[in-house]
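User: Structure tokens for this complex, please. No commentary.
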Amino acid sequence: MTKADRSPADHDGGRARLASHPAFQLAQLGSHIKGRFTAHLAPLNIAPRHFDMLALLTDADGLTQQQIAEELNIHRNVMVGLVDELEARGLAERRRHPTDRRAYTVHLLPAGRELLRKADRIFDGFENDELLATLTTAERQTLAELLRRVAAAAGLHRGVHPAFHGSPE
Amino acid sequence: MTKADRSPADHDGGRARLASHPAFQLAQLGSHIKGRFTAHLAPLNIAPRHFDMLALLTDADGLTQQQIAEELNIHRNVMVGLVDELEARGLAERRRHPTDRRAYTVHLLPAGRELLRKADRIFDGFENDELLATLTTAERQTLAELLRRVAAAAGLHRGVHPAFHGSPE
DNA sequence: TATTGTTATACTCTATAACTATA
DNA sequence: TATAGTTATAGAGTATAACAATA
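Assistant:
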């Protein structure tokens, strides 16, 4: 007996129960997106968390490790290894904080800016040509605005991205 | 020197860069929702994955472990422990497959149905009173429909929920 | 006394491979 | 030869606690 004999793909009765609930749809899509974006970034040898960090440094260069960790919603312990990786690849570097000798500030290097440009193109391509290809421009704007309000109400203001961390799926 | 001296909360320049991109918003919200729903379910001593499984069995009782694993997008190895837990708590039970002696079918027990009812109320309360409280009824429908189309285009049809598995955040 | 960066440790999730009993 | 369930193992990822240097 094979699997097809047992599962005629017809037990789909009320299963759509959850499928029309935004809370469920959002959780499902969020996980899917993280996995897909991770795959798209793989050729650059970076993970979404590196993308997040490079993007943050582009807009706010010279933050301390703690500040970066807070913005990205990750622990400062993890930050250590993250900065280590970027530094080892010449994408960013640590400098002593000008007035607080306990702290390091993190700065983007030219190689980091260039890598971010490539990652940005990958992100845009994924979003426009793959994820949202089925929506019109107006619909994309409507979606973005609704999501913005939901995210704001949830306290997810600013550019923080706890979703892009961790392992996909 | 204190943290506030260094971070006047003003380095928010172009950081909204990603914040208006649906791909990013969805990933961010998905992660947030998983964490919140996990917290809401904690009093019932179950995780979102148990909720998913109970919900699936309600609509399609008697699936084999493999079939459940496929629907929920988890590995069959993990399925073993999951069924073990539900069985130990009297929420579901294994029965020998009527014709394939290698397989077990999984069936919901009364205690499982009751627990699912409670979990359903928690889910609805979270979605309506917390997550989507800021949207009107019409806006919620618009959001659900846009998400449905994006999910369908991504191949996330049916009631599968890879997003509710794993650890939150 | 609190904070920054760091390291060590344990705990959870997940991914792979192998085993058994069946088909 | 392939499949269902199971188990063991190793690998990520994360969370906690502690430490030295500095505030």
